Amino acid sequence: MNGGAAASTSGGWTVLLVWLAVINLLTFIVYGADKRRARKGKWRVPEKTLFLLPLLGGSIGALLGMRVFHHKTKHWYFVWGIPAILLAQIALAVWIYTK
What we know:
Elements: H1 3-40, H2 47-69, H3 76-98
Helix pairs in contact: 1-2, 2-3
């Protein structure tokens, strides 16, 4: 990027970084809360939501939540799906950055 383009998009990068921090923290918390609810036999977070949050940018939070809380680690569609979402997001980020 040239200097002018970098200056005009720096606010956009800040917004993106704040969004990613918030969505990943929220995703991590939701995975932990769902695990706690599962242990207590309470109402659960729908699996659609547990996939939507990573799709919205919280894939790192989901992976950390799976690892820390040992949550959804026996479901192949989470074990393979969440890393696939992260890889797709990284590929998209690289493509946008190098475009």
